Amino acid sequence: MFNLKRFAIISVAIAFAIAVIGACVFLFSVKKVSAEFTVYGDSQAEEIQKDLDAFTGKSLLFLDVDDVYKVCEKYPYYQITSVKKSYPNVLKVSVIKRVEAFKVISGASVYVIDGEGVILNDTGATEYSGGVITISLKTVAIESAVIGEKITTASDALFYAIIKSANDLGLCDLIESVEIDDKDMRRNAVIATNTGVKIVVWDVENSGGEKIAQAFSNYETLGDYEKTDCWITAYKENGGAIKALWTPYDPFEE
After folding, report:
1. What tens digit of pLDDT does each residue of 1-45 get?
2. pLDDT by residue (tens digit) across 153-190?
């Protein structure tokens, strides 16, 4: 009799626990995926929203947010910046569209990347040509170029120093192209501006960011006429000081 009563109590407890768990699962199951998109130009927001809606009905309690972040892996132009569980049953997601910043040319290959170096496409096609800087890698080999991932080169310190300088100094609307090449046993960068000025950064792998900053500081002091057709050379003196000088002549021909 005692065992039967004890069994009945345990059975009721188990049934109650199952009922509570079931109620919790139902109460905290995702009813809506609220996605906020920050998008310009062409949009794949509808496709991304459909993929996010696949989380509807899943338990918000046990949902792995890493799975949500993975949704944009097949949309290289987009990045999920935040995922928040809004109890009891809403999943909030923020999505931004990456901005085309650079076109990287290496031999016959052309890649469009954003300001962080993430490859958006390998066709070279851009939605808007304005503000996209062309970087020509003549002697810097590309080691990895996977769409949706950061591009890697044989000289990442040099490559990303140029990208960082362009971003930090707000030069994307001023620079037309960047060419990286070797001359006289040094690796140099030739930066063409859209006003006609060309900037030569000697030995760009050595304090390249400081030299670029000094060169554009010099550029801002030029008059309108001087900005139409001249050269600025940036270099480091033996004593370590960074210099940038204006010249009307091509420094490669001196």
Report:
1. 555 556 555 554 554 445 445 444 545 688 999 999 999 888 999
2. 988 888 998 898 888 888 888 899 999 877 667 788 99
Backbone angles phi, psi at 244, to 5 degrees: -140, 120
The pair of structure tokens assigned to 206 is 């050595």
27 SS3 class: helix
Strand ordering across the sheet containing 78-86: 32-38, 90-97, 78-86
At 70, the amino acid letter reads K
Provide the residue type at 202 as one letter: W
Strand, helix or coil for residue 251: helix
Structure tokens at 196: 């006609």
pLDDT of residue 3: 59
Q: Which residue stretches of the chain are H helix? A: 2-27, 45-52, 65-69, 156-168, 208-219
Measured distance CA(92)–CA(32) in Å, rounded = 9
